[in-house]
Amino acid sequence: MRGADAALGATGLGVLLLLCEAVPRLGLVDEDYFPPTVRIAGALGRELSDSAFWSALGDTLTGWALGLAIAVGAGVVAGVVIAVVPYLREATASTIEFLRPIPSVALIPLAVLLYGTELRSVLLLVVYASFWQVLIQVLYGVRDVDPVAEETARSYGLGTWARIRHVLWPTALPYVMTGVRLAAAVALILAVTAELVIGAPGLGARIAVAQTSQAVPEMYALIVVTGVLGLLINVGARTVERRALAWHQSVRAEVAV
Description:
Structural class: mainly alpha
Number of helices: 11
Pfam family, one: BPD_transp_1
Strand content: under 5%
Number of strands: 0
Family: Belongs to the binding-protein-dependent transport system permease family.
Organism: Streptomyces dubilierae
InterPro entries: MetI-like (IPR000515), MetI-like_sf (IPR035906)
Oligomer: single chain
Largest sheet: none
Keywords: Cell membrane, Membrane, Transmembrane, Transmembrane helix, Transport
């Protein structure tokens, strides 16, 4: 089944590449604004042979990885503490609902004011956007804990840490992994966006330079790189999720199918 899905995915990608080649060749779109696939592939080859490209890729991955790690750690800890401490969830609910909808890009002026075009500006935006993805999922996961299992653990004399480890965490882990997968994608989006708008070192800044210098094929090649990077991150996150939840019914059913 997976082999068939992979073949269909490859076929769809091939059709897309052919369309991208044919549309400008047929004059439906000006080649100056949308180069054919062959020209984009050539520009991609030149980028791959440029050491500055790999440096920019490393900067983007650094901002993504650090921001995601901070967001996941803070989101899990904050979510568990809010869920375990009595009345804390009700006390923080309005604050969370107020802060969560604020778009991360609205914080760009603040990030520039505080840190300029340094890595810390990228981290501020990445962490803020990714943190909520994890926190909300942790809160939902804790809410899904079976009250009977919780009371049984209490009746057997399990302490707070033991209940978190043996009751709360196994129930919340599927939600946590979903939050991590969503946060990984959001972190990449914000990392590239911050570089593009702020000018922090990375693929986003390189895309902006290509756009302002009218290097259109190179610009599209770099955009393709960010798309491939997002695909690889999503595949990696799903792989980690399946392995971490190999015991869970949803993953076992997926494997069985």
